[in-house]
User: Fold this.
Amino acid sequence: MPQTYVKKILDARIYDLALETPVDRAPILSQRLGNQVLLKREDLQPVFSFKLRGAYNKLRQLSVSQLAAGVIAASAGNHAQGLALAAQKMGVKATIVMPKTTPLIKVDAVRGWGAKVVLHGDNYDTAAAHANVLIAQEGLTYIHPFDDPDIIAGQGTVGMEILRQLPGDLDAIFIAVGGGGLCAGVAAYVKYVRPEVKIIAVESDDAACLDAAMRAGEPVRLKEVGIFADGTAVAQIGTETFRILKDLVDEVITVSTDEICAAIKDVYNDSRAICEPSGAMGVAGLKKYVEQHAVVGQTLLAIQCGANIDFDRLRYISERTEIGEKREAILAVALDEKPGSFKTFCQALGRRTISEFNYRYSDVSQAQIFVGVKISSEDDRDQLVAELTQDGYQVADMTDSEVAKSHIRHMVGGRSPQVGEEQVFRFEFPERPGALFDFLVQLGNDLNISMFHYRNHGSAFGKVLVGFQASKKDGLEVKGFLDKLGYRFEDETDNQAYRFFLGS
Assistant:
């Protein structure tokens, strides 16, 4: 099977439009991780991602009649840009169906390359379904973003370049996976030419469709897909891509949003390039692989596969980076409510830097503070908690609490004893114009809202923390009502951070 793809990759005719991108060393990461870390710079393509390779290769294989009909694709952005530029190059009409959650920079870029943009749905799958409707109506030629041999072969030219550019030591290649086109193409070529090189697939932990397929032995559809890493937000791995990947991938690694954010910063520090979340997933996976396997002295390459990111998203990314790098601990600490207690606490922290300190008077005997502290590692965090506990402080580590990170740190001091019993829920919905209003309309007037926090911080998801005046006895009834709304939610009534700082 790889032999077939090797020939198709060698025959790909793309270099009158696509670039042969460089492999750059990442000196800061290399020193920190104790390995030679390399970056394949696909963010330097004319459309700032590798997707141009597959799209252009596919168009070069189409018949005259297929091109004359016009082409259509469903895409969260990078395939759309690649196809739009390829179509412009060949004088072909292109229509792109994009999820409404697609970053504006990608939408504008697609329009800039001359394609017609249709915004539909909240993720790739709903966009793809609408594309099929348009195909039936208008007779357009569908260009799949990943599950097509010509697309896979075009992306596989990345692997061909890597081996040509690195004839010496190369231990592993780390590749972001959404539908699997890039990983399948690179794996098919690399494993045929140099089978000793490991292929490590990297997925976002809230869109790990390849990992699910590997466990099941066949492609399976995820019930929900996180869209922070919008370029890889795919609910089901491709049939053809899985056929290749199941035999050629050495390992699948999943990474969190915080780990992706930290990787974006790592790439920036080494290259001064700002990746989109999916573009940095390879680096995030590489870091996790080194940590999990304790490898030293190896040559590891991550494909830096995309740089199409809305600027306002950087606010959210920078906020989560310190936690993703395990360089910030978020703690709730009880202090005696008396003069000098703040100073004594700061002395207990030693020379550690305080990144955040929140407090509001609420009790005559005890103060509950919300504090962020710079740390050097997870072990350092554990040591800090242990030291403070030994000094007699009541400490709760909230570093891994989503409620604390997304909401509580912006709400400390909002305690209201008059509320009475309260049921608290955390909601997520795809961020787009009017999304909050739509959410409130759905919520209706059936429940009395006692607390509400929403913050638009550039994430793909809108995040809301809502309190309802309701007893525990009524909790099941409340959940039943919320289930009918169709939004993803978690019951946070017993959340430690909420209890410390907001609970009545």
Remarks:
- The first helix runs from residue 2 to 11.
- The chain has 20 helices and 18 strands.
- The chain has a mean pLDDT of 87.
